[in-house]
Design goal:
single chain; 218 residues; alpha/beta; 8 helices; 5 strands
């Protein structure tokens, strides 16, 4: 309820300003219109402490992933960058030299996504981290609809096989959906892979769960 009230207040305050497009209802049907696959690399998996290291967003629909026009940004080196996160995303302080200022990167992201639904693996984490930095600077949270790939995949599997216990790890889902993993633990690579997985999940259930072990967790 609190989140709904906050979104309504954000819409009243910002629905006619610079970012009015974000608050415009998205009317495309479930299987039509553009969506945006979003991914962030961060300094931590703790939402309250995580700082953004890089982010990427890729527009796609049921037929095409628009990689040529993707948004891919590395940010200025955050204070919380440590070895444990560097081992995952492989971005060192020297790699972030000349990176985007956080406010500028968020402004570019808002302009890029518009009111399109956001899609990703663990999308709630990425959006929560973005919102933690977005609200103090712009006065609102991302209002976009969200589709979590793991939840959507689990729903599809349970529809086909009610007792299914599928493996919801990123790589396992990609393999089951017969999607190549591109640049794992890079923001752009994970966003592109997520877009292709989402495309597979737009197909009829009988095509999505086409392999005998796709939902078995084996």
């Amino acid at each position: 309820m609190f989140q709904q009230l906050r979104r309504a207040a954000d819409r009243r305050r910002h629905g006619h300003g610079e970012f009015a497009e974000l608050f415009r209802p998205w009317h495309a049907s479930e299987h039509e219109g553009e969506r945006v696959a979003l991914d962030c690399e961060t300094t931590s998996l703790d939402v309250e402490r995580a700082e953004l290291v890089s982010l990427a967003a890729v527009r796609f629909d049921a037929r095409r992933v628009r990689t040529a026009s993707a948004l891919s940004l590395q940010l200025q080196c955050p204070e919380g960058l440590r070895g444990d996160s560097i081992r995952i995303h492989r971005l060192r302080g020297i790699d972030l030299h000349g990176g985007e200022a956080l406010g500028d990167a968020l402004h570019q992201l808002l302009a890029f996504i518009g009111n399109r639904p956001l899609v990703g693996w663990c999308i709630d984490f990425d959006v929560a981290v973005i919102n933690r930095h977005l609200r103090p600077r712009f006065g609102f949270d991302l209002p976009n609809l969200r589709h979590d790939l793991a939840r959507d995949y689990l729903k599809r599997c349970r529809h086909a096989q009610p007792e299914a216990a599928p493996d919801l790890r990123f790589e396992a889902m990609a393999e089951a959906l017969q999607v190549p993993v591109i640049g794992r633990h890079t923001a752009l690579g994970d966003a592109v892979t997520s877009a292709m997985m989402a495309q597979r999940l737009m197909l009829p259930v009988t095509q999505v769960v086409s392999r005998h072990d796709a939902c078995s967790g084996s």
